[in-house]
């Protein structure tokens, strides 16, 4: 059995870096655990707990959760499939997640095999994915979106180049409103079409 006595400190450091306090400290501890020992015992808030390795939070949950949020940003902007491939590869690839580790210092929070201090880029990328998964489970999609913004995982030139499109149901309401307004305007001033009305009508299409 492996024993790690300072996980409360690691969890606190991680929460400080990502600017998010998780209600489940054990979930955050799991996200930070890279030790392969299935019998890892950690001390969280003075209590000893069994803590599994972070693989399930990373590959099974964290990676798809992060991809889903990025995909929602991509699809709202009406970008092409090629743009999605580029955005995903640039923002949530192992190399970029390792870069986030270097900039934010998350590697210092990770528990390694046998207390090893070495963390490879793949190990750190897995931990970042697991942290994102833990945040989504603990606080929902809004919490995940906020943390990804904070870590720079939504900052991409392609996403910044196009504003989010107006939701379809809102466009339908706008179209009905503009049609009624245009009828009124044409009755009052035949042939007249205010520039603001034309612009708004184009936006609603």
UniProtKB/TrEMBL annotation:
<dbReference type="InterPro" id="IPR000999">
    <property type="entry name" value="RNase_III_dom"/>
</dbReference>
<dbReference type="GO" id="GO:0006396">
    <property type="term" value="P:RNA processing"/>
</dbReference>
<protein>
    <submittedName>
        <fullName>Ribonuclease 3</fullName>
    </submittedName>
</protein>
<dbReference type="GO" id="GO:0004525">
    <property type="term" value="F:ribonuclease III activity"/>
</dbReference>
<dbReference type="InterPro" id="IPR036389">
    <property type="entry name" value="RNase_III_sf"/>
</dbReference>
<feature type="domain" description="RNase III">
    <location>
        <begin position="85"/>
        <end position="140"/>
    </location>
</feature>
